Amino acid sequence: MLEKLKAIGFSEYEAKAYLALLKLGEATGYEIAKNSGIPRSMVYQTLKKLREKGAVQEIQGDPVKYLAESPLEYLDRLSEEFSARIGEARKALEAYIQAEPQERVIHLNGQQIAEKIRKMLRKAERNVKLLASTAMVNPYREELNRLRQKGVSVELTLIGKGEGWSAFKPVVLAREKTILKKRDSLGFQLIVDDDELLLAEEDTGNEAIGIWTRHPVVVHLAEHHFLHHHDLPKLFQALLEEIEPEVRKRCRTKLKELLQKLEP
After folding, report:
1. Which of 149, 181, 212, 219 is most buried by its number of CB atoms within 10 A?
2. Tally of helices (H runs) and strands (E runs) in the chain
């Protein structure tokens, strides 16, 4: 029991005096010293510190007596005070972070990438734009579902087949229809609240690398890249659906021919 009280800020003498008072009820300093094993020369100094903590009350009289606060009430108050201090520290740190330059770029690797992705998703309040292979997005299904249930806009462009993501109405692209088709690995692009960006490579056996930034120009460029792979295919599909089937077929054929001509 002494160790548990010491873990929440009591000294050894304070813990012994508090436990003695819980057992004795009202007691004088002499009685507390006798029952706790605290030297009489130290007991009044110890009781003064307990009063300052709010763990002990002093009852005026001749002689002066002491009474321990209810453990449950004391711990509840201690918990509230600690939570309030944590809240103040959080606000101060958030203000400090926001005051830091937004132009910096942080390099990430390995597990740092997954941790940063989850942190960004936890903070998302308005929108999430995510472009990656289906396999790279799958580990974040729980976080993305939670955001969608909260009303956060979640826009997905999935490279591959997009299995299991139909509820999000993603844009699903074959790898050969992206600018990544000639690379050995696919990329992961996450934009949160139009404010911060994470870019990473797919883990292909070597340790993955990535970057995070809030640089407004870089975020803006990434949003245009996302627009190219997400909004334009949706718009094109919507236009095709408005065209007569025979015309639609000719349009698709012509587009394939144009794309082949554009191939380097």
Report:
1. 212
2. 11, 10
